[in-house]
Each structure stands twice: as C-alpha cells, then as structure tokens.
Amino acid sequence: MLSSQELVQFRRDLHSYPETGWCEFVTTFKVVQKLRSFGIEPKFGRQIINPEFVAGRNEKAVEAAQKAALDKGVSSEFLEQMGGYTGVLATIETGRPGPVLAVRFDMDCVDVQEALEAGHRPFDEGWASTNPGHMHSCGHDGHTTMGIGLCSWLVENKDKLCGTIKVLFQPAEEGVRGARPVAESGVLDDADY
Fold first, then answer.
1. 93: domain range?
2. Which of 125, 146, 181, 190 is the 20 to 30 A CA-CA neighbour of 116?
3. Cα 39 vs. chain centroid, distance in angstroms?
4. pTM (2 d.p.)
5. What is the CATH number of the domain that holds 158?
6. Residue 184 and residue 163: Cα distance in Å, rounded?
C-alpha cells in the first residue's frame, strides 16, 4: 500500500501540472501508470467515454494539451490509445460474489492563475502550477490522489472483500460536462451502488 508520503508526493505532482476539462492527458497518463504499478489494467480515454454526449469540449485546447503531453513525456502511442479523450476506470475484482460498487473521483482543474508569490505554500515549496492559467483550486489533485490511495488499499485488501469495485477518475467535472459521457459509455451499467 502507498505510504502517506508517496500520496503527498503524487498529489503535489498533480498540483504542479493542472489540466482543464477534456485536456487531462498528462493526469490520465499518471493515473494509468500508477494503477498499472498496482497490477491493475484500467480502461481509459475513449474506452470509457461516449463522444456523442460530450459537451463543452474545446478542440483547439485539446490539441494543445496533447502536444503539451508529448512535451511532458507522454508517448504518442499512449495518446493514440486514448483516442483523444481523457479519464480512467479501474476495476478491482475480488473473485468472490457480491455487488458492484462504483466510486468517482474528479481530475480536472479550473482556469485561474495560481499565486506565484512568497507566502503561498505551493510556490514556497516548489510545487505550484507550471501550467499558466490553470490551477487545482478546487482540490481535484487531492481527489484524484484519494482515488489512487483507495485503489492501492483495495488491491492490498481484496482477499478480505467481495464483489467488484469500479474506481472512476472522471474528466471534465467543472462545468458538469464529464459524468454523462462516462455514464453513456456503458462502463457503469452494472453498478449496484
């Protein structure tokens, strides 16, 4: 299971590069890599999004975000697998009968400039936003990190659990744009709770 210090570092890493809704390519990559390190092979991008129900998506911003993701070390192969969409779904099967529980965590940021001045803790400690005009001021960096912590715990404790747990890292929560495209993809149709 991840230590509290590993979770703090993951959150600060996310905080330092916030991405607006439908542009969370670097965040999606980081979440997928972390889940794979736990032995989870998640679905992501177009696998969990029904594009017919996507609203408020700025194609120029999406293009720029994909280019920025390449510059941040996300491979073109991974971006191709995403199919132009963001978001992640981790499914943890316990191997025992039981209900399907779905839990949601947000990934996107808001389009405001973070304070870059002495006295602002992220600035003072070197983990303030490096993506101009974007900031995790609503705490979705922490929310995503809680989802990663939950997945780490679930994998470690799945022999004590029953049923299936689906952990959704939802894109585009700000502006209420991301939930319906995920729901309309069908990946949560079997959720009991």
1. 4-183
2. 146
3. 17
4. 0.97
5. 3.40.630.10
6. 23
